[in-house]
Each structure stands twice: as C-alpha cells, then as structure tokens.
Amino acid sequence: MKIDDLLEAPKKKKGKSWVKKADDWVRGSWLQQQVDIAQKQTGNKGPASTAEPVGDNKDDKKSKTKKVQKNNFRNTRINQDKMPKSAQYKDKNGIVWAWEPARDAWLPSNNNQIPLSARDGARGYNAAKPTDRGFYESKTNTGQLLKEGGNIFKDQNKQPVTQRINQADVDPTLAWLEKITGLPHKDFKLGSTGIRSTSGDMDISVNQNDVDKQELFNKLAAWAQKNHPEDEVRQWVAKSGVSVHFKTPILGDPKNGFVQTDLMFGDPEWQKFSLRGSGDNTPYKGMHRHLLMASIAKAQGMKWSFQNGLTNRESGEMIAKDPQGVADNLLGKGTKISDLDSVENIIKAIKGRPDYEQLVADAKEGFARDNLELPEAYNEIIDLAQRIR
C-alpha cells in the first residue's frame, strides 16, 4: 500500500455512519505508525480513537455514544522555544523527521539527509499539513530539560531522573560501566561526551560486528534485576533505534545522581569521525559542522551523510566512507582528517579556494537561522585575499 493511500480519510461504509473527527482516521495511518514508534520510545500512552461506528437510527446514536478519551496527542503547530516531548512529520519530499530531544535534533528517515536543528525542524513541522504531523504535548519545557540531562528515564511524574555529568566524571563512570558490560567504553566516546565541561548524556559507540544488541540489553537488565529487584527493568535500561540506553550511577554511586548513557551500535571508527562534537571554546555544535560539510559537498555535486559518507548527488554512487577519503574529496587532496574536526578547521582549510563562496553558501543560510556567522577571523583573511586577487 502506498503511503498516500494511508493518509486518506476512510470512506463511509454501507449500513453504518461514522462520527468524523479531525484525528479519527489517524488509526492505522502513517502518522499513527510514527506515534506508535514515539510511544515505544517514550513510554507514553498513544491517543485513543475518537471514532465509534454507530447505527443509522438516531436512537442508536444516542444510546451508543461514548465519551472521548482525553490524551496529550496533538497535530497543531508547535512552539520552537518549548519543544514537545516527541514529534514526527512528513515533508513535501516524503521524508519523515522525528524529534529526538536527547540529540537536540530532528532525525531523518532518509540516510542521505543530515539532521535538522530544533529550530529548522520546528519550522518544517509547522509548514507540514496537519494530516502529516503529530506530537505528544509536554507539560514542561523539554528544551530546558535537555540542558538538565537525558530524557529516556523518568519518574512517576514524568520528570527526568538523570542529570548532566561533569567532564572529570565521564571516564571514571565509564570505567565502572565497563565492569558490567565487559566492553571498552572510554576510548569510544561520541559527540561532545568528555569534550565539553558538562554533557547532557554520554554517547558511546559499540561495534555492531562484535556485540549483539539484545545480548548487551540482557546483560544490563540482569544487573538491574540483581541490584534493584524492587524496580522495573525499564527504569534502568531501554532500547530505541540503534541504541541501548542505561541509567548510569555517576562514578558508580547512586548518591552522585544518574546520567543517561546511550550505547550506539555501528562502526566505531566511522562514528567517532562522523559524529564528532565540539568543545566549550566555540559557539558551534556538531550540527553546524554537518551543515557546513553538507554545503561544501552540495557545491561539488556530492551529498554528505553522517551515516553513509559522501555519495554522488545524482547517481547516489558511493564516493567515500572513510575519514581520509571524505577529507580528500570534500576539502581537496593533501588535507588531513583533523581539518574536518570543527567548523573553524574546515573554514581554515578552504579559505583560500576561489570557489569559497559557493562552498559555504548553504551553510551561511543555515547558520543564520541559529543567529551564527562563519568564523569572523577567517572571513577577514578571505576578504583580503579576494581583494588582492
């Protein structure tokens, strides 16, 4: 069945009339599928159908009318400054975007697309048709909660039970976790974990070729059952997408509080390169690095994906999925992998190129939406070089 067919409202059936509500047909549709995914990830109850088949007789309608079950599912516009706990929408190109608070980004269903920032994704969501979008309403500002820590594990009041972790506590906490999993974690940190002074959660790569996701989940679940038999396993460990999430005692001691650890399955060496984060001494996040790399790739007839590497923009043929290959094709022969470590390094590597403005055109627009500009010092050097030429 085509996705467009799923998005059509149901037609009237013979012998019955259907109470038409705005969200009646959501049952079984693409949107409901996305809601179900969000429900599994967040633990929130999904919306109940408000449509009830009733007889044609008016008396039957009165006798069989049921109260509409209230829920916190909506498909109205969202406020980018007060993001919901989970949301999904389909854009005009058919790509599904899912809001992931733990990543502070909208993740795409198409691997050739890079994630969107919270602001850009919210704009895309609001521009989508109401029938192509939906979210779970949040009672609190999840944008603020994100700053306080992960969001997978919550108490009975739906408040996060995890917090941010200080940079100095990251490696000792991972050393404690290694004793449970039997895996090396300290050398496989992703994103800004261990780079920034504090981290909202700990992102750790796990080699998908060496470790079975279910086995790792079972190992952590067994630890939780042994050490906290009074709790449900879901209070300590959960799965979603390519990750296993664990509520980790900081420094191995619950008295220090808990941090959410996201054990992300994939190719560790690739993930450490493609998902590299940034430190405290820059206004740019990992997302901005991706925006810049995608801009440079587009200007040269390529596509950049943090999952698939560099591909031909028209044919989709693989160009490079190794760090040095990406550097050579994106920035030019002779460049180093470290030239792609940050926005600043990337600009420094391409600042003298005659096609510089074309390379950064899309990035400038993306950065402007976040009230950011390209590194000013490098821009001044570029302007001077152009005037000399």
Please specify the SSE layout and strand pairing.
Blueprint lengths: L2 H4 L10 E2 L11 H13 L10 E2 L3 H7 L8 E2 L11 E5 L5 E5 L4 E4 L7 E2 H10 L5 E4 L5 H7 L16 E2 H15 L16 E2 L2 E6 L5 H15 L9 E4 L2 E7 L8 E9 L1 H7 L11 H14 L2 E4 L3 E4 L5 E3 L2 H9 L11 H8 L5 H14 L6 H13 L1
Parallel strand pairs: 11-14
Antiparallel strand pairs: 1-2, 3-8, 4-5, 4-8, 5-6, 6-7, 9-10, 12-13, 13-14, 15-16, 16-17
Helix pairs in contact: 9-12
Separate helix tally: 13
Q: What's the oligomerization state?
A: single chain
Order of helices and strands, N to C? HEHEHEEEEEHEHEHEEHEEEHHEEEHHHH
Helix percentage range: 25-40%
Sheet having the most strands: 6 strands, antiparallel
On the 0 to 100 scale, the average pLDDT is: 78
> How large a portion of the residues is in β-strands, by DSSP E?
15-25%
DSSP strand count? 17
Which descriptor suits the 3D outline? globular
**Cross-sheet strand order for the largest sheet:** 3-8-4-5-6-7
Note the main attributes of this structure.
single chain; 389 residues; alpha+beta; Beta Polymerase, domain 2; 3 domains; four-stranded mixed sheet; 17 strands; globular; disordered N terminus
Give a structural overview.
It is a single chain. By secondary structure, the chain is of the alpha+beta class. Helix content is 35%, strand content 17%. The protein has helices at residues 3-6, 30-42, 58-64, 118-127, 142-148, 167-181, 213-227, 268-274, 286-299, 323-331, 343-350, 356-369, 376-388; strands spanning 17-18, 53-54, 73-74, 86-90, 96-100, 105-108, 116-117, 133-136, 165-166, 198-199, 202-207, 237-240, 243-249, 258-266, 302-305, 309-312, 318-320. Helix 9 (286-299) packs antiparallel against helix 12 (356-369). It is globular, with a radius of gyration of 24 Å. The termini are far apart. Mean pLDDT is 78; it is low at 1-29, 41-70 and 138-149.
